[in-house]
Amino acid sequence: MKKILLIDQQLTHSLALCQDMESLGYSIEIVDNAFNALVEIERNDFEVILLDYFVPKMDSFWLLMAKHCQTPVIVLANNNDDVERMQAYELGADDYIAAPYNVKELLLRVNVLRRRSDKVIHQSDFDDVLFDDVSNTVTLNTQHLKLTQTEYRLFKYLFQRKGEVVTKAELQMRVLHKELGEFDRNLDMHISNTRRKMAKKCLPRELINTVRGKGYCFSSSLI
Description:
Elements: E1 2-7, H1 15-23, E2 26-31, H2 34-43, E3 48-52, H3 58-68, E4 73-77, H4 82-91, E5 95-98, H5 103-118, E6 129-132, E7 137-140, E8 143-146, H6 149-160, E9 165-167, H7 168-174, H8 186-200, E10 208-211, E11 215-218
Parallel strand pairs: 1-2, 1-3, 3-4, 4-5
Antiparallel strand pairs: 6-7, 7-8, 9-11, 10-11
Keywords: Cytoplasm, DNA-binding, Phosphoprotein, Transcription, Transcription regulation, Two-component regulatory system
Pfam families: Response_reg, Trans_reg_C
Subcellular location: Cytoplasm
């Protein structure tokens, strides 16, 4: 039976969703916090993880997830708030769905992510990384990642500094050529768009890591 992990602080709100999914052939394991989730992840092989947006210590969950597994994550939210959705993608979510949840749509998304994760490129596959400055395309072996000019420059700049934490202020000045404003989300938007394009090519989200309160880091362990 296909297993799904649901992380939800308000467990009573999850019962109807779980019953609907179980009636369609899924086994649901429910926990109420991020650290209990990691215990279950160590014990079980889940198809996908459903994460309530307001689970306490959600940031800690993403940090631990990056170290422990590659299981796809769908964030469940109370509303389709643009800021919350962007933050979820920035933290590393593979998908985001707002209430009220259509169970059939949710399961379709689960199946899409499962197929995508089955195809994911393993670390040893990243032997060659090529940059085409004319077409703004990055080639990782046979995967061609077509980016906008700004996304391409950000990707290349982070790659050239792989393994290092590059601050948002530095990226803003060196790549976007302007100072970072207090409420400026332009840089985050470009990174978020790049990650979505990477996901479509089955490239691991951990290639570009968010370092909370500092900036971004291109993973040297995956290249």
